[in-house]
């Protein structure tokens, strides 16, 4: 196998699995670990991934198109499931909760309790459809133009968002840095900024691959976050930076 082909395979593994180890790649492709390290360095220089200690993770900045339906509305990664399980513990009886249309939001649905009554406001057709069978949950779907992803984030949806007072919003973004949450699409940022601005409490749900990343448009400053839930692969330096901004952090453990 030529080195170019090997790097293509590595990129596919990183995008699919969310994390690869250099040792595992060396064994799989029957090359030295130094060869894999050179591959990873070259791919990082090209902006295709981010190197970590012992391997690599995806670079969120290369994602210029929506996730495939099977990825957005699938079982989720181990990291997403760990974060989702922790997230649902923060929902209290009779609260109004915003759950958007990101992959981790969809993963949350299977962990929602049926023991207490609460209300969900969503901009996701898929999330609303899945919640129709929950007798303990009242669901409100924000209106507007439906995108291919099933999400609604246009100006009409923004007007809908202005009408609600939300007790708890679960925030997702493409990146989180010292500047706060950010995303690649201004329309999406404006919509979520409105939602978070009408929320009494905002909890960010962010896998470690998104920490330390800044994308095109700011969504929400760190000062407006009440809590960050991330996973145990999160960088200690980034966690300390977040703490210095007065944001509490919960580390969700993998099973």
Question: Would you tell me the overall average pLDDT?
Answer: 91
User: Which range does the strand content fall in?
Assistant: 15-25%
In CATH, the topology of the largest domain is named: Rossmann fold
Largest sheet: 7 strands, parallel
Radius of gyration: 19 Å
Q: Structural class per helix/strand content?
A: alpha/beta
Portion of residues within helices:
25-40%
Low-confidence segments, ≥5 residues, pLDDT <50? none
Task: Specify the number of helices.
Answer: 10
Q: How many strands appear in the DSSP assignment?
A: 13
Shape label: elongated
Q: How would you write the strand order of the largest sheet?
A: 6-5-4-7-10-12-13
Tally of discrete structural domains: 2
Q: Whole-Å distance between the termini?
A: 36 Å
CATH class call of the largest domain: Alpha Beta
Element string (H = helix, E = strand): HEHHEEHHEHEHEHEEEHEEEHE
In the CATH hierarchy, the architecture of the largest domain is 3-Layer(aba) Sandwich
Concise synopsis of the structure shown:
The protein is of the alpha/beta class and 255 residues long. It has two domains: 3-58, Winged helix-like DNA-binding domain superfamily/Winged helix DNA-binding domain (Arc Repressor Mutant, subunit A, Orthogonal Bundle); 69-252, Rossmann fold (3-Layer(aba) Sandwich), CATH 3.40.50. The protein has helices at residues 3-17, 22-29, 33-45, 69-72, 78-88, 103-108, 125-131, 155-162, 186-197, 236-244, and strands spanning 20-21, 49-52, 55-58, 96-99, 118-122, 137-141, 166-171, 175-177, 180-183, 199-205, 217-220, 227-231, 248-252.
């Amino acid at each position: 196998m030529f080195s170019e082909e090997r790097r293509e395979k590595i990129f596919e593994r990183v995008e699919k699995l969310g994390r690869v180890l250099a040792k595992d790649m060396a064994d799989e492709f029957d090359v030295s670990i130094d060869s894999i390290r050179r591959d990873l360095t070259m791919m990082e220089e090209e902006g295709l991934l981010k190197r970590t200690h012992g391997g690599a993770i995806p670079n969120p900045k290369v994602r210029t198109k929506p996730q495939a339906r099977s990825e957005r509305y699938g079982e989720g990664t181990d990291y997403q499931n760990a974060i989702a399980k922790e997230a649902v513990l923060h929902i209290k009886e009779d609260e109004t909760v915003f759950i958007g249309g990101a992959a981790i939001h969809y993963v949350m649905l299977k962990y929602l309790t049926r023991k207490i009554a609460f209300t969900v406001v969503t901009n996701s057709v898929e999330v609303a459809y899945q919640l129709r069978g929950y007798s303990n949950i009242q669901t409100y779907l924000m209106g507007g133009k439906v995108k291919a992803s099933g999400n609604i984030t246009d100006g009409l949806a923004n007007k809908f968002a202005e009408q609600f007072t939300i007790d708890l919003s679960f925030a997702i973004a493409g990146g989180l840095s010292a500047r706060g949450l950010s995303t690649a699409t201004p329309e999406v940022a404006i919509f979520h900024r409105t939602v978070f601005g009408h929320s009494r409490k905002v909890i960010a749900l962010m896998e470690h691959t998104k920490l330390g990343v800044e994308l095109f448009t700011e969504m929400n400053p760190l000062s407006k976050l009440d809590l960050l839930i991330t996973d145990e692969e999160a960088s200690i330096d980034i966690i300390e930076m977040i703490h210095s901004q007065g944001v509490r952090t919960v580390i969700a453990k993998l099973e």
